[in-house]
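Board notes (copied after class):
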Amino acid sequence: MHNGPMSVVQSLEPPVVDVCCTPSGTDVLDAAEAQKRALVFKAMGDPNRLRLLSIVRASAGGEACVCDLTEPLDLGQPTVSHHLKILVDAGLLDRDKRGTWAYYSLVPGALDRAAALLTAP
């Protein structure tokens, strides 16, 4: 029996790590797709923008002039235009310039695609 200091032997082998779970095998979002989806969610994450989508969807002919969108929101035209630009950039609204006015309509299928983002891989 040795009464001196205990010797410590280190192994050069990496420790065995138990995997806690098996990868599911389902597709995961890449960075570019996650960025595109976040743009849609960010656009829809503002109450005024949700109201704008609702107003445009309910408008006669499925389109609304920017001049008709300021009063229901009780916001100034520059603020409404800013919100509309975000919705256009996210692919939710189309913009059609006619003279001095811009008309907005829902992109066909955009709301269905936005809803599917919640369940799609």
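Comment from the instructor: The mean pLDDT is 84. The longest helix spans residues 31-44.
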